[in-house]
Structure formats: C-alpha cells, structure tokens
Amino acid sequence: MKLVSAIIKPFKLDDVREAISEIGIEGLTVTEVKGFGRQKGHTELYRGAEYQVDFLPKVKLEVATQDENVERLIEAISSAAKTGKIGDGKIFVYEVEQCIRIRTGETGDSAI
Hints:
The protein is an alpha+beta fold. It has a single domain (2-111), classed as Alpha-Beta Plaits (2-Layer Sandwich), CATH 3.30.70.120. Helix content is 20%, strand content 37%. The strands form 2 sheets. Strands 2-5-1-6 form a 4-stranded antiparallel sheet, with helices on one face. Strand 3 and strand 4 form a beta hairpin. It starts with a strand and ends in a 17-residue tail after the last strand.
C-alpha cells in the first residue's frame, strides 16, 4: 500500500477530486495548508500599503491506495493540477505499513 500526498493550488481542488474519481479511486483527505517553495511568496497591496506574503495558501491531499494504482493516481493528480506556472505543487509517495478500518477491524488493502 502507498500513501500519495500532493500539495496543490486551492482552486485546482475540484478538478483533482474529479480526476481521482474518474479513475475509480474513492476517498481522500484534504487539509488547508500554507507554505512556499521556489516562488518564495509574493508582494500584495492592501489599503495602499504594500506587504510581503511569505506563506501562500495551498491544499494538501492524501490518498491511500494499492500499489498498482499509484502511477494512474499520480498521472490524474498531475494533469488535473497543472497550470504550467510556478507554484503548481508537488506529489510525494510514501510506503504504508498497515491500514486498519476502525468500524469493521478490516486490515490491509481491504481497509482502504
């Protein structure tokens, strides 16, 4: 099992969720986060005063899936989240040692 974690632009969330559903993967966790990468924030103007925004709003998605679905999942997230501009985000893939469904006690792939 793998945990695919993606940091994307907030306005791409619906597109990514739809792309994940289309490939038959159900269930994801979404967290609103802030951060920066190479773009290192930007300057904004508010009531005539200029100020630096160091941490940009992002969305973090986490999807647990079977090993055979990882490549399709990465492709779906990449194509749906891509704008071609700086700050599109990153995808990380982690190994999952164990998964347990609390309600039924199922373990492993069947618990996903």
